[in-house]
């Protein structure tokens, strides 16, 4: 057969695919990354770049279903379900609703915290060892509140998070206003998670690609993958640029994974959760820490190179429109909290699809029934935060090495 034969093919050139490629190269495997557009052009590009062990609690929590139903007909709500006939989404929502209880919340929080803590430490090590130029800063993240009742609720939740090794510091409103001159008067309080960090995600992904290439990995951009077939001794991948054959393949396609793996008779319960962001030049007064404006679910991240407002969760399928109502909600939320809520110039208005599973845990491991096919998808809102741990775990599983933590909670078989 006249086509390239590779060791490991990685389908998807976002943070997850490239982190997996890097870890595989360091484990001694050869890698070719296949990316349909440019590396980092999907959900890795425009998110807020926070590295957040603090986000261990899943979206599925007691009370979320009732709140979501109240917001269903509010187009600028932080969590929005676009009314439509979509049987796959409604099945997903039924499973999601079944997990909105304390027992399931604790199970997902435990598994997410393990992955996030490993990734947080590993990412810092990667930044240093590989000299990743991505504006990585270990400064913590603040949850900021104007609503006193919501503030007290999260203070109580922080006590539960300490069981999972997630430390926090609590400020009353006046103390936080003295601590953080970028906020307006009238804050009810704030919670700081000192173990969190931040980076510029587009630069992080570009730096991962640089290191992968430097270690001998191949990255084919503008290479759309059109199909995949399992072979007894490997896989055959059909692309717009011809066939590629590999000993193993890792599918890291984020929210596009379910459609792609259907040809392998795999059913992957991932729904696209649409998020938005606006990137500006830096205002003159900026927050000292990355922050989440909790009453409005708006994330604020500051870098030397810019300033970003982001977040919201919209279940509208693969709707490719840039919704001005959702973008306006980000700026309106920021104006309630910040002295300078936007920068002098808006550089980019963006959306991306987060790959959401109903238990808020990724699928990491061998695809059921396919010896040489591996899945690394479903990281929800935490793909950047979980990328380093995911990459190392996938490399350990593929090379049959003992992982740093138990991979059982993330196994794709749980959805079979």
Short descriptors:
10 helices; FAD/NAD(P)-binding domain; 19 strands; alpha/beta; globular
Task: Write up this protein.
The chain is of the alpha/beta class and 416 residues long. It has a single domain (5-415), classed as FAD/NAD(P)-binding domain (3-Layer(bba) Sandwich). 31% of the residues lie in helices and 26% in strands. Strand 18 and strand 19 (373-377) form a beta hairpin. The longest helix has 28 residues, at 102-129. It is globular, with a radius of gyration of 21 Å.
SSE layout:
Elements: E1 5-11, H1 15-26, E2 31-34, E3 50-51, H2 64-71, E4 79-81, H3 87-98, H4 102-129, E5 141-145, H5 148-161, E6 169-172, H6 173-179, E7 189-193, E8 197-198, H7 201-214, E9 218-220, E10 225-231, E11 234-239, E12 242-251, H8 257-261, E13 270-280, E14 290-293, E15 298-303, E16 306-315, H9 324-335, E17 346-357, E18 363-366, E19 373-377, H10 383-398
Parallel strand pairs: 1-2, 1-12, 2-9, 4-16, 5-14, 12-19
Antiparallel strand pairs: 3-8, 5-7, 6-7, 10-11, 11-12, 13-16, 13-17, 14-15, 15-16, 18-19
Helix pairs in contact: 1-7, 1-10, 4-10
Keywords: Oxidoreductase
Protein name: FAD-dependent oxidoreductase
Domain FAD dependent oxidoreductase: 7-397
């Amino acid at each position: 057969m006249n086509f390239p034969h590779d060791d490991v093919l990685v389908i998807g050139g976002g943070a997850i695919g490239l982190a997996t490629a890097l870890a595989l190269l360091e484990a001694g495997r050869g890698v070719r990354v296949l990316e349909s557009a440019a590396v980092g052009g999907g959900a890795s590009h425009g998110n807020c770049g926070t590295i957040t062990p603090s986000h261990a609690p899943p979206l599925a929590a007691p009370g979320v279903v009732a709140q979501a139903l109240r917001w269903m007909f509010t187009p600028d709500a932080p969590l929005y379900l676009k009314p439509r006939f979509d049987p796959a989404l409604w099945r997903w929502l039924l499973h999601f609703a079944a997990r909105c209880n304390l027992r399931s919340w604790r199970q997902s929080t435990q598994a997410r915290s393990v992955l996030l803590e490993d990734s947080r430490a590993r990412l810092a090590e990667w930044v240093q060892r590989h000299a990743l130029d991505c504006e990585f800063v270990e400064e913590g993240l603040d949850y900021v509140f104007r609503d006193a009742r919501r503030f007290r609720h999260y203070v109580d939740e922080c006590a539960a998070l300490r069981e999972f090794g997630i430390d926090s510091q609590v400020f009353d409103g006046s103390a936080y206003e003295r601590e953080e001159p970028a906020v307006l008067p009238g804050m009810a309080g704030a919670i700081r998670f000192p173990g969190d960090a931040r980076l510029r995600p587009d630069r992080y992904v570009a730096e991962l690609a640089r290191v992968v290439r430097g270690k001998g990995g191949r990255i084919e951009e503008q290479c759309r993958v059109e199909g995949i077939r399992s072979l007894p001794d490997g896989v055959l991948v059909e692309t717009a640029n011809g066939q590629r054959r590999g000993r193993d393949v890792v599918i890291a396609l984020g929210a596009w994974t379910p459609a792609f793996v259907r040809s392998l008779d795999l059913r992957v319960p991932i729904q696209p959760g649409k998020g938005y962001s606006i990137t500006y030049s830096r205002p003159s007064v900026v927050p000292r820490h990355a922050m989440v404006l909790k009453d409005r679910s708006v994330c604020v991240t500051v870098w030397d190179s810019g300033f970003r407002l982001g977040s919201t969760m919209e279940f509208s399928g693969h709707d490719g429109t840039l919704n001005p109502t959702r973008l306006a909600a980000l700026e309106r939320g920021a104006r309630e909290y910040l002295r300078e809520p936007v920068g002098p110039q808006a550089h980019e208005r963006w959306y991306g699809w987060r790959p959401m599973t109903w238990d808020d845990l990724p699928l990491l491991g061998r695809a059921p029934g396919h010896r040489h096919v591996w899945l690394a998808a479903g990281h929800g809102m935490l793909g950047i935060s979980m990328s380093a741990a995911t990459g190392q775990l996938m490399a350990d599983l593929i090379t049959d090495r003992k992982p740093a933590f138990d991979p059982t909670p993330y196994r794709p078989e749980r959805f079979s």
